[in-house]
Specification:
By secondary structure, this protein is mostly helical. The chain has a single domain, classed as TspO/MBR protein (Ferritin, Up-down Bundle), CATH 1.20.1260. About 75% of the residues lie in helices and about 0% in strands. Helix 3 packs antiparallel against helix 6 and helix 5 packs antiparallel against helix 6. It is elongated and about 50 Å long. The chain starts with a helix and ends in a 6-residue tail after the last helix.
Length: about 150
């Protein structure tokens, strides 16, 4: 794995993480009804840090594999949708509209993972936690929409 390539993908992940930091949960989010299974706040930055590192490593590995064009396009799509979600949900407070980038994120992460496995099994395995996390995040977003119909914007 080329370190400079890894650092480039990590920088893209850092940009996505920055939107989470710029548009963080606050009193507004605390006031929303959430399902009982909502993780505590500290879980989110811990999980995202881990997922961003795994995703950057997987991308760096996949970038060196022949026939990687489609899988790298899925990687680009997922980081774009990832970057968009926090500004829509937390910045604009459009919790229903945030389901659109969440759906794009979920689909692109699932496709990224499925396409990664045949090219590099280790990359595919590194992406499985991401699929699980965005599935839970999507369910949480949908649950928050359902529990807060007046906030759906």
């Amino acid at each position: 794995m080329d370190l400079s390539i890894f650092l480039t993908y990590l920088a893209a992940c850092g940009a996505a993480a920055a939107t989470g930091a710029m548009f963080s949960p606050g009193e507004w989010y605390d006031g929303l009804k959430k399902p009982d299974w909502t993780p505590p706040r500290w879980v989110f930055p811990t999980a995202w840090t881990t997922l961003y590192l795994l995703s950057a490593v997987a991308a760096a590995r996949l970038s060196a594999v022949e026939g990687n064009a489609q899988v790298m396009a899925f990687w680009a799509a997922q980081i774009a949708f990832n970057t968009l979600w926090s500004p829509v949900f937390f910045g604009l407070r459009k919790i229903k509209a945030a389901l659109v980038p969440m759906a794009g994120l979920w689909l692109s992460v699932v496709l990224l993972t499925l396409w990664a496995f045949p090219l590099d099994i280790w990359s595919g395995l590194m992406l499985v936690p991401y699929v699980i996390w965005v599935s839970a995040a999507g369910a949480l977003n949908l649950s928050v929409v359902r529990l807060n119909p007046g906030e759906s914007g």
